[in-house]
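Question (not urgent): is this output format expected?
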Amino acid sequence: MIKLGVSLYPEQETLEDIDSYLKMASKYGFEKVFTSMFSVLGTKEEIIKYFSDFCEIAHKYNMVVSGDCNAEFFNRIDATESDLTVFKEMGIDIIRMDFSYNDKRDAILINNSEGILIEMSTGFKDVILNAIKNGANKKKISTCHNFYPQRYTAPDLTVISEINDYWKSQDVSVAFFITSQEKGTHGPWPVSDGLCTIEDHRNLPIEVQLKHALSLKNIDEILIGNAYASEEEFKAIYKVMKEAYVNIPLKKELDFLVDYIPCGNITRIPFKINLAKDISNLEKEILFNYPTHADLGDCLNYMLRSRWTRFLYKNESIPERKTDKSVFTRGDVLVVNDNLKHYAGEIQIVLKDMIVDNQRNFLGRICEDEIMILNHIKANDVFTFIE
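Got this back:
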Protein backbone atom coordinates (compact mmCIF):
# COMPACT_ATOMS: atom_id res chain seq x y z
CA MET A 1 0.00 0.00 0.00
CA ILE A 2 1.24 3.47 -0.88
CA LYS A 3 2.20 5.54 2.16
CA LEU A 4 0.88 9.08 2.48
CA GLY A 5 2.67 12.18 3.73
CA VAL A 6 2.37 15.93 4.12
CA SER A 7 4.91 18.77 3.98
CA LEU A 8 5.49 21.63 6.41
CA TYR A 9 7.72 24.69 6.30
CA PRO A 10 8.52 25.64 9.90
CA GLU A 11 9.73 29.18 9.25
CA GLN A 12 6.18 30.01 8.06
CA GLU A 13 4.13 28.03 10.59
CA THR A 14 3.60 28.00 14.34
CA LEU A 15 3.96 24.83 16.36
CA GLU A 16 0.30 25.16 17.29
CA ASP A 17 -0.73 25.16 13.64
CA ILE A 18 1.63 22.26 12.95
CA ASP A 19 0.08 20.25 15.78
CA SER A 20 -3.43 20.90 14.48
CA TYR A 21 -2.48 20.00 10.89
CA LEU A 22 -0.68 16.77 11.76
CA LYS A 23 -3.51 15.72 14.02
CA MET A 24 -5.90 16.08 11.08
CA ALA A 25 -3.52 14.40 8.61
CA SER A 26 -3.00 11.38 10.86
CA LYS A 27 -6.77 11.04 11.25
CA TYR A 28 -6.99 10.40 7.50
CA GLY A 29 -4.18 7.85 7.31
CA PHE A 30 -1.08 10.01 6.74
CA GLU A 31 2.12 8.58 8.19
CA LYS A 32 4.94 10.94 7.21
CA VAL A 33 5.84 14.62 7.35
CA PHE A 34 8.46 16.20 5.11
CA THR A 35 10.03 19.43 6.36
CA SER A 36 12.76 21.84 5.38
CA MET A 37 15.39 22.01 8.11
CA PHE A 38 17.93 24.37 6.55
CA SER A 39 15.43 27.24 6.29
CA VAL A 40 15.08 27.54 10.08
CA LEU A 41 17.34 30.23 11.49
CA GLY A 42 18.91 30.47 14.93
CA THR A 43 21.73 29.10 17.02
CA LYS A 44 22.51 25.39 17.16
CA GLU A 45 20.68 25.18 20.49
CA GLU A 46 17.61 27.00 19.15
CA ILE A 47 17.45 24.76 16.07
CA ILE A 48 17.75 21.60 18.16
CA LYS A 49 15.01 22.82 20.51
CA TYR A 50 12.72 23.72 17.64
CA PHE A 51 13.01 20.41 15.81
CA SER A 52 12.86 18.41 19.02
CA ASP A 53 9.47 20.02 19.65
CA PHE A 54 8.48 19.51 16.00
CA CYS A 55 9.37 15.79 16.05
CA GLU A 56 7.62 15.30 19.37
CA ILE A 57 4.40 16.57 17.80
CA ALA A 58 4.79 14.35 14.73
CA HIS A 59 5.62 11.26 16.77
CA LYS A 60 2.61 11.94 18.99
CA TYR A 61 0.52 11.25 15.89
CA ASN A 62 2.64 8.23 14.84
CA MET A 63 4.18 10.09 11.91
CA VAL A 64 7.83 9.81 10.83
CA VAL A 65 9.79 12.99 10.10
CA SER A 66 11.89 13.50 6.97
CA GLY A 67 14.15 16.54 7.24
CA ASP A 68 15.52 18.21 4.11
CA CYS A 69 19.19 19.11 4.74
CA ASN A 70 22.23 20.55 3.01
CA ALA A 71 25.94 20.89 3.78
CA GLU A 72 25.57 24.30 5.37
CA PHE A 73 22.95 22.97 7.80
CA PHE A 74 25.24 20.07 8.78
CA ASN A 75 27.91 22.65 9.66
CA ARG A 76 25.45 24.77 11.64
CA ILE A 77 24.53 21.90 13.95
CA ASP A 78 28.00 20.25 14.06
CA ALA A 79 26.91 17.06 12.28
CA THR A 80 29.12 14.98 9.99
CA GLU A 81 28.61 11.96 7.77
CA SER A 82 29.97 9.77 10.56
CA ASP A 83 28.16 11.44 13.46
CA LEU A 84 24.41 12.05 13.21
CA THR A 85 23.89 12.12 16.97
CA VAL A 86 22.33 15.56 16.91
CA PHE A 87 19.67 14.41 14.41
CA LYS A 88 18.91 11.45 16.64
CA GLU A 89 18.55 13.77 19.64
CA MET A 90 16.04 15.89 17.72
CA GLY A 91 14.02 12.82 16.73
CA ILE A 92 14.60 13.00 12.97
CA ASP A 93 13.74 9.64 11.35
CA ILE A 94 14.86 10.39 7.77
CA ILE A 95 17.44 12.80 6.39
CA ARG A 96 16.71 13.90 2.84
CA MET A 97 20.05 14.96 1.42
CA ASP A 98 19.95 18.07 -0.71
CA PHE A 99 23.57 17.32 -1.59
CA SER A 100 25.95 14.38 -1.68
CA TYR A 101 29.64 13.90 -1.09
CA ASN A 102 29.94 11.76 -4.21
CA ASP A 103 32.68 9.68 -2.58
CA LYS A 104 33.03 7.07 0.16
CA ARG A 105 31.46 9.43 2.69
CA ASP A 106 28.04 8.76 1.14
CA ALA A 107 28.29 5.09 2.14
CA ILE A 108 29.36 6.11 5.66
CA LEU A 109 26.38 8.43 5.90
CA ILE A 110 23.93 5.79 4.67
CA ASN A 111 25.31 3.14 7.05
CA ASN A 112 25.02 5.47 10.07
CA SER A 113 24.84 3.82 13.47
CA GLU A 114 22.00 6.09 14.58
CA GLY A 115 19.52 4.13 12.45
CA ILE A 116 18.43 7.16 10.41
CA LEU A 117 17.22 6.42 6.89
CA ILE A 118 18.97 8.46 4.18
CA GLU A 119 16.77 9.75 1.38
CA MET A 120 18.26 11.13 -1.84
CA SER A 121 16.90 12.68 -4.99
CA THR A 122 15.73 10.17 -7.58
CA GLY A 123 18.15 11.91 -9.96
CA PHE A 124 21.20 10.88 -7.91
CA LYS A 125 21.53 7.60 -9.81
CA ASP A 126 25.33 7.52 -10.06
CA VAL A 127 25.74 8.80 -6.50
CA ILE A 128 23.53 6.06 -5.05
CA LEU A 129 25.07 3.30 -7.18
CA ASN A 130 28.58 4.43 -6.17
CA ALA A 131 27.54 4.45 -2.52
CA ILE A 132 26.24 0.87 -2.85
CA LYS A 133 29.53 -0.13 -4.52
CA ASN A 134 31.32 1.41 -1.55
CA GLY A 135 29.35 -0.75 0.86
CA ALA A 136 26.19 1.23 1.53
CA ASN A 137 23.29 -0.88 2.75
CA LYS A 138 20.54 -0.56 0.11
CA LYS A 139 17.87 -1.12 2.77
CA LYS A 140 18.90 2.18 4.40
CA ILE A 141 18.35 4.21 1.22
CA SER A 142 15.18 5.69 -0.21
CA THR A 143 14.61 8.18 -3.02
CA CYS A 144 12.34 11.17 -3.43
CA HIS A 145 11.47 13.26 -6.45
CA ASN A 146 11.72 17.03 -6.37
CA PHE A 147 8.73 19.34 -6.50
CA TYR A 148 8.48 22.31 -8.84
CA PRO A 149 6.92 25.54 -7.51
CA GLN A 150 7.28 27.41 -10.82
CA ARG A 151 4.53 26.74 -13.33
CA TYR A 152 5.61 24.81 -16.48
CA THR A 153 8.92 23.69 -14.95
CA ALA A 154 7.89 20.23 -13.72
CA PRO A 155 8.89 17.29 -15.93
CA ASP A 156 6.77 15.12 -18.16
CA LEU A 157 5.25 11.91 -16.81
CA THR A 158 7.28 9.76 -19.22
CA VAL A 159 10.56 10.96 -17.71
CA ILE A 160 9.36 10.46 -14.14
CA SER A 161 7.91 7.03 -14.86
CA GLU A 162 11.19 5.81 -16.37
CA ILE A 163 13.04 6.93 -13.25
CA ASN A 164 10.47 5.21 -11.03
CA ASP A 165 10.75 1.97 -13.00
CA TYR A 166 14.52 2.03 -12.60
CA TRP A 167 14.46 2.43 -8.82
CA LYS A 168 11.74 -0.19 -8.48
CA SER A 169 14.01 -2.59 -10.40
CA GLN A 170 16.73 -1.80 -7.85
CA ASP A 171 14.32 -2.40 -4.93
CA VAL A 172 14.73 1.21 -3.76
CA SER A 173 11.58 3.03 -2.69
CA VAL A 174 10.34 6.15 -4.48
CA ALA A 175 8.45 9.15 -3.07
CA PHE A 176 6.48 11.56 -5.24
CA PHE A 177 4.78 14.94 -4.65
CA ILE A 178 1.22 15.91 -5.46
CA THR A 179 -0.29 19.33 -4.78
CA SER A 180 -3.17 20.75 -2.80
CA GLN A 181 -5.53 23.02 -4.73
CA GLU A 182 -6.48 24.97 -1.63
CA LYS A 183 -6.12 28.74 -2.08
CA GLY A 184 -3.32 30.38 -0.11
CA THR A 185 -1.14 27.28 0.23
CA HIS A 186 2.60 27.76 0.35
CA GLY A 187 5.91 25.98 0.05
CA PRO A 188 9.41 27.00 1.12
CA TRP A 189 9.25 30.13 -1.07
CA PRO A 190 6.57 32.78 -1.68
CA VAL A 191 5.10 30.96 -4.69
CA SER A 192 1.52 29.70 -4.80
CA ASP A 193 1.24 27.75 -8.05
CA GLY A 194 1.32 24.32 -6.43
CA LEU A 195 4.10 21.90 -5.52
CA CYS A 196 3.96 18.82 -7.71
CA THR A 197 6.41 16.38 -9.27
CA ILE A 198 4.82 16.31 -12.75
CA GLU A 199 3.37 19.30 -14.58
CA ASP A 200 0.17 17.50 -15.60
CA HIS A 201 -0.90 17.39 -11.95
CA ARG A 202 -0.61 21.11 -11.23
CA ASN A 203 -4.28 21.99 -11.79
CA LEU A 204 -5.96 18.66 -11.09
CA PRO A 205 -8.08 17.86 -8.00
CA ILE A 206 -5.87 16.21 -5.42
CA GLU A 207 -7.77 12.91 -5.47
CA VAL A 208 -7.33 12.65 -9.25
CA GLN A 209 -3.58 13.15 -8.83
CA LEU A 210 -3.62 10.32 -6.29
CA LYS A 211 -5.56 7.97 -8.58
CA HIS A 212 -3.17 8.75 -11.41
CA ALA A 213 -0.17 7.99 -9.20
CA LEU A 214 -1.78 4.72 -8.07
CA SER A 215 -2.30 3.68 -11.69
CA LEU A 216 1.44 4.03 -12.39
CA LYS A 217 2.22 1.17 -9.98
CA ASN A 218 5.81 2.35 -9.44
CA ILE A 219 5.48 4.79 -6.51
CA ASP A 220 5.83 3.89 -2.83
CA GLU A 221 5.03 7.18 -1.11
CA ILE A 222 2.90 10.17 -2.08
CA LEU A 223 3.46 13.48 -0.32
CA ILE A 224 1.35 16.63 -0.49
CA GLY A 225 3.99 19.22 -1.37
CA ASN A 226 2.32 22.41 -0.20
CA ALA A 227 0.65 23.44 3.06
CA TYR A 228 -2.01 23.49 4.19
CA ALA A 229 -4.26 21.02 2.38
CA SER A 230 -7.90 21.29 3.41
CA GLU A 231 -9.85 18.73 5.39
CA GLU A 232 -12.06 18.22 2.33
CA GLU A 233 -8.95 17.20 0.38
CA PHE A 234 -7.93 14.82 3.16
CA LYS A 235 -11.41 13.30 3.08
CA ALA A 236 -11.21 12.89 -0.71
CA ILE A 237 -7.85 11.13 -0.42
CA TYR A 238 -9.14 8.90 2.37
CA LYS A 239 -12.12 7.90 0.21
CA VAL A 240 -9.85 6.99 -2.72
CA MET A 241 -7.57 4.92 -0.49
CA LYS A 242 -10.54 3.12 1.03
CA GLU A 243 -11.85 2.25 -2.44
CA ALA A 244 -8.41 1.44 -3.87
CA TYR A 245 -7.17 -1.07 -1.28
CA VAL A 246 -9.78 -3.73 -0.60
CA ASN A 247 -10.17 -7.43 0.13
CA ILE A 248 -12.69 -8.98 -2.26
CA PRO A 249 -13.80 -12.61 -1.97
CA LEU A 250 -14.68 -14.42 -5.19
CA LYS A 251 -18.41 -14.71 -5.82
CA LYS A 252 -19.54 -18.33 -5.55
CA GLU A 253 -21.28 -18.13 -8.92
CA LEU A 254 -17.88 -17.43 -10.50
CA ASP A 255 -15.82 -20.14 -8.77
CA PHE A 256 -15.15 -21.77 -12.13
CA LEU A 257 -13.26 -18.59 -13.15
CA VAL A 258 -10.99 -18.53 -10.11
CA ASP A 259 -7.86 -18.50 -12.31
CA TYR A 260 -9.01 -15.39 -14.18
CA ILE A 261 -10.89 -13.12 -11.79
CA PRO A 262 -8.94 -10.92 -9.34
CA CYS A 263 -9.84 -11.65 -5.72
CA GLY A 264 -8.35 -11.39 -2.24
CA ASN A 265 -6.26 -8.30 -1.51
CA ILE A 266 -6.83 -6.01 -4.49
CA THR A 267 -5.53 -2.62 -5.56
CA ARG A 268 -8.00 -0.97 -7.89
CA ILE A 269 -8.64 2.42 -9.49
CA PRO A 270 -11.99 3.98 -8.48
CA PHE A 271 -13.21 5.96 -11.49
CA LYS A 272 -15.78 8.69 -10.94
CA ILE A 273 -18.58 8.41 -13.49
CA ASN A 274 -21.30 10.82 -14.56
CA LEU A 275 -24.29 8.60 -15.24
CA ALA A 276 -26.69 8.77 -18.16
CA LYS A 277 -30.02 10.21 -17.09
CA ASP A 278 -32.02 7.21 -18.30
CA ILE A 279 -29.78 4.45 -16.89
CA SER A 280 -31.83 1.59 -15.42
CA ASN A 281 -31.55 0.21 -11.89
CA LEU A 282 -30.28 -3.10 -13.28
CA GLU A 283 -27.58 -1.32 -15.27
CA LYS A 284 -26.53 0.56 -12.12
CA GLU A 285 -26.34 -2.72 -10.27
CA ILE A 286 -24.12 -4.31 -12.92
CA LEU A 287 -21.87 -1.25 -12.95
CA PHE A 288 -21.49 -0.66 -9.21
CA ASN A 289 -22.05 -4.01 -7.49
CA TYR A 290 -19.34 -5.93 -9.30
CA PRO A 291 -16.16 -4.93 -7.39
CA THR A 292 -13.30 -6.12 -9.63
CA HIS A 293 -13.79 -4.92 -13.19
CA ALA A 294 -10.71 -5.82 -15.25
CA ASP A 295 -9.66 -6.56 -18.81
CA LEU A 296 -7.86 -9.80 -19.69
CA GLY A 297 -5.60 -7.86 -22.04
CA ASP A 298 -6.05 -9.92 -25.18
CA CYS A 299 -7.93 -7.22 -27.07
CA LEU A 300 -6.87 -3.87 -25.59
CA ASN A 301 -7.69 -1.79 -28.61
CA TYR A 302 -11.05 -0.08 -28.82
CA MET A 303 -12.12 -0.78 -25.27
CA LEU A 304 -11.49 -2.19 -21.81
CA ARG A 305 -13.75 -5.22 -21.39
CA SER A 306 -15.01 -6.35 -18.00
CA ARG A 307 -16.39 -9.66 -19.18
CA TRP A 308 -17.41 -11.59 -16.10
CA THR A 309 -20.50 -9.53 -15.30
CA ARG A 310 -22.21 -11.23 -18.22
CA PHE A 311 -22.05 -14.56 -16.35
CA LEU A 312 -23.63 -13.02 -13.27
CA TYR A 313 -26.45 -11.40 -15.22
CA LYS A 314 -26.97 -13.94 -18.01
CA ASN A 315 -30.57 -14.56 -16.93
CA GLU A 316 -31.45 -10.85 -16.82
CA SER A 317 -32.88 -8.82 -19.67
CA ILE A 318 -31.02 -5.66 -20.70
CA PRO A 319 -33.21 -3.95 -23.31
CA GLU A 320 -31.66 -1.61 -25.85
CA ARG A 321 -31.73 2.07 -24.85
CA LYS A 322 -31.37 4.67 -27.55
CA THR A 323 -28.76 7.42 -27.21
CA ASP A 324 -28.32 10.80 -28.85
CA LYS A 325 -24.68 9.93 -29.52
CA SER A 326 -23.61 8.85 -32.98
CA VAL A 327 -20.10 7.94 -31.80
CA PHE A 328 -18.91 6.57 -28.46
CA THR A 329 -15.70 8.36 -27.44
CA ARG A 330 -12.79 7.68 -25.09
CA GLY A 331 -14.06 7.57 -21.52
CA ASP A 332 -17.64 6.50 -22.32
CA VAL A 333 -18.85 3.53 -20.26
CA LEU A 334 -21.15 0.99 -21.92
CA VAL A 335 -23.01 -2.24 -21.24
CA VAL A 336 -23.79 -4.84 -23.90
CA ASN A 337 -27.56 -5.24 -24.28
CA ASP A 338 -29.96 -8.01 -25.35
CA ASN A 339 -29.27 -7.41 -29.05
CA LEU A 340 -25.99 -9.25 -28.53
CA LYS A 341 -27.33 -11.70 -25.97
CA HIS A 342 -24.26 -13.90 -25.64
CA TYR A 343 -22.31 -10.91 -24.29
CA ALA A 344 -25.17 -9.06 -22.57
CA GLY A 345 -24.10 -7.60 -19.22
CA GLU A 346 -20.48 -7.05 -20.22
CA ILE A 347 -19.16 -3.64 -19.08
CA GLN A 348 -16.91 -1.73 -21.48
CA ILE A 349 -14.87 1.48 -21.28
CA VAL A 350 -14.28 3.07 -24.68
CA LEU A 351 -10.65 3.78 -25.59
CA LYS A 352 -11.08 4.79 -29.25
CA ASP A 353 -14.03 6.20 -31.17
CA MET A 354 -16.67 3.55 -31.88
CA ILE A 355 -19.69 3.97 -34.12
CA VAL A 356 -22.88 3.65 -32.08
CA ASP A 357 -24.75 0.45 -32.92
CA ASN A 358 -27.78 -1.12 -31.30
CA GLN A 359 -25.74 -3.58 -29.21
CA ARG A 360 -24.44 -1.33 -26.42
CA ASN A 361 -26.20 0.97 -23.97
CA PHE A 362 -24.54 4.20 -22.83
CA LEU A 363 -24.20 4.13 -19.03
CA GLY A 364 -22.26 7.32 -18.49
CA ARG A 365 -18.87 8.92 -18.82
CA ILE A 366 -15.75 8.91 -16.68
CA CYS A 367 -15.03 12.39 -15.28
CA GLU A 368 -12.93 14.34 -17.76
CA ASP A 369 -10.01 14.85 -15.34
CA GLU A 370 -9.68 11.08 -14.90
CA ILE A 371 -9.73 9.99 -18.54
CA MET A 372 -5.93 10.30 -18.72
CA ILE A 373 -5.71 7.48 -16.17
CA LEU A 374 -6.96 5.12 -18.88
CA ASN A 375 -3.49 5.45 -20.45
CA HIS A 376 -2.12 3.31 -17.63
CA ILE A 377 -4.79 0.61 -17.26
CA LYS A 378 -3.29 -2.60 -18.57
CA ALA A 379 -4.19 -6.29 -18.60
CA ASN A 380 -5.69 -7.47 -15.30
CA ASP A 381 -5.54 -4.01 -13.69
CA VAL A 382 -8.63 -3.71 -11.50
CA PHE A 383 -11.01 -0.77 -11.57
CA THR A 384 -14.35 0.17 -10.09
CA PHE A 385 -16.86 3.01 -10.44
CA ILE A 386 -18.09 5.73 -8.09
CA GLU A 387 -21.11 7.87 -8.95
